[in-house]
């Protein structure tokens, strides 16, 4: 099963099992990862599931689509690696994915 590593602003790292077909947001919420609020439940309508994809994974994860890019404007401290974690679908290709959680959501 794919594993995802979440790293917080203090550098604390947590590995979780993330079945293919879940989103990165679901893997975070189901494992009580701090810093992912996901208020809209994955509908790309809240921007409180904001994460930074680790540089090493940017190509594999790919780019946000238009709807996600529009919603990302509501996230604070936007960076080129910013994504909404509810819009990243987990596949076996993403086994070992590393994402960083932001200091705060919204
Ligand atoms: Fe609301 Fe991702 S959970 S945009």
From TrEMBL:
Keywords: 2Fe-2S, Iron, Iron-sulfur, Metal-binding
GO molecular function ontology, one term from the record: 2 iron, 2 sulfur cluster binding
Record bears the keyword Metal-binding: yes
Pfam families given in the database record: Fer2
Domain of life: Bacteria
Chain segments annotated as transmembrane: none
UniProt record similarity statement: Belongs to the adrenodoxin/putidaredoxin family.
Domain 2Fe-2S ferredoxin-type: 2-105
Example GO BP: P450-containing electron transport chain
Gene3D superfamilies (UniProt xref): 3.10.20.30
Lineage, highest ranks first: Bacteria, Pseudomonadati, Pseudomonadota, Alphaproteobacteria, Hyphomicrobiales
GO CC entries: cytosol
Protein source organism: Enterovirga rhinocerotis
Protein name, UniProt field: 2Fe-2S ferredoxin
Ion transport listed as a keyword: no
PANTHER family, sorted: FERREDOXIN-2, MITOCHONDRIAL, FERREDOXIN/ADRENODOXIN
Cofactor: [2Fe-2S] cluster
